[in-house]
Amino acid sequence: MSEQREQAVSPAVRNRVDNYVGGEWTTPTTETSQPVVDPATGDELATVEYSTAETVDEAVRTADEVFEEWRQTPVVDRVQYLFDLKAELENRLDEIATALSREHGKTIAEARGEIQRGIENVEVACGMPNMMREGSGNVEDVAPGMDEYAVRQPLGVFTAITPFNFPAMIPLWFLPYAVASGNTFILKPSEKVPLSSQLIFEAVDAVGFPDGVVNLVNGGANTVNALLEHDDIEGVSFVGSSPVAKHVYETAAEHGKRVQAQGGAKNYAVVTEHAAVDDAVPNITGSVYGNAGQRCLANDVVVGVGDVYDELREQLIEAAENLTVGAGVDEDTDVGPLITGDSRERVIDLIDNALEEGAELVLDGRDFEHSNAELDGHFLGPTLLKGVTTDMEIAQEEIFGPVLCLADAGDLDEAIEMVNSTEYGNASSIYTESGSEARQYKYEVDAGNIGVNVGVCAPMGFFHFGGRKASFFGDLHAQGEDAVNFYTEKTVQIERWYS
Ligand code: NAD
User: Fold this and answer.
1) Domain residue ranges of the chain, discontinuous segments joined by +
2) 223 lines ligand 1 (CB under 6 A)
3) How far is the CA of 295 from the centre of ligand 1 (A)?
4) Is ipTM beyond 0.95?
């Protein structure tokens, strides 16, 4: 690291955002920039430059040039870099968590948790020698003296474009698998939270991957489009909102690339009369208000079935009232700020509209002000609405804020109909101690991730992670075996020897 850059590093948060290309920290050519803002205080932490198509081209060419050599590096040697990356990330966990919490607003515990979930994917990708072996197979004597088998081969340069809400974990859903399987890689993180990636790439730099294998390009929509349209990018992984996911899917496909694009969500939880309500309530509260509701697995509509509704409502109100709102870096905080003022306004508009459509406000966080005047960022207090029905906008649109919508249903069939009424299919949870209710739910709910008494059903790194309907565009999901299938092509080889 240069002396100049060293000086630019505050203990936990750096104030410069650079690209990392060809093993060097580089400054992009740029036409636009934007501040990186601490959402709890409004303090400017750094400025992020939007890389131009020219900078993107340099990064892609660099990654493309080293691909053949990296491909020829034995997979057992490639994964040694990932073992080292795991250690580097673990050593830097506190530093990354603090920066992440400052730039995003989530609590330190949540930041640490997501980094650990990211590291989990590094661990899984360390098993790439075995994963490359699986799913191939071979058959001797398909004809006299002729054998046939399939091998996995990497394809070239891959890119991942990631959202703001998990600044460390989501890049690590892709980076480890892409490079372990022999591809080279370019990350384009969210321009709202680029600092976590800076620190992750300091870990990458410390590991000493061969120059050009792992690259970082910062920027916004134009940077993304330059990646999507570049001839030498083989594949694109995307996570973000559904309209952008659809755009990425269509544009990347039009330019001949393979693409996996994870979109937005609208998740319901159902609590039946057979639920252990005392256990369900903290779980639901964590799902809805954790991460200030800014997660694609938040169950922001909770349906009470039959007689459980009244007890459920009272317990959820009490739990929400006891949450502490504040800056993520403050230890007693449960609910941090929203990422931007625009996000806060959008959520308030959704609440206002729900009230016009007939919902009732039980807890109102719209006018929340922190007692510490320095914390005048984008806070919204925990909000709870009851009487929400599926024809309301708030029951169909992703909220992405600390808002819980309570609804009720006469029976499980009706509840499942409500769950399936949205255009999304990312996740859903049922709270019940009845096996047959759980089975019906798992069978009939159209979502990629289903929790039974689990409110944030985020699959482990060795399972795939992806939604359905408008929550996902593509076929192969992130993580696990799907990642290996996405990042490799299976080639059938048929051979016969005459002497
Ligand atoms: P976003 O779609 O605004 O941005 C995601 C990425 O796309 C960023 O890197 C951004 O620079 C880029 N981008 C934004 N607009 C673009 C455009 N017009 N053209 C090209 N690129 C563009 O999403 P966000 O607000 O950062 O993230 C929140 C969304 O992500 C939510 O909808 C959430 O549900 C979703 N999400 C989904 C999952 C999942 O697994 N399905 C996981 C996390 C987040």
Assistant:
1) 16-263+467-493, 267-452
2) no
3) 11
4) yes
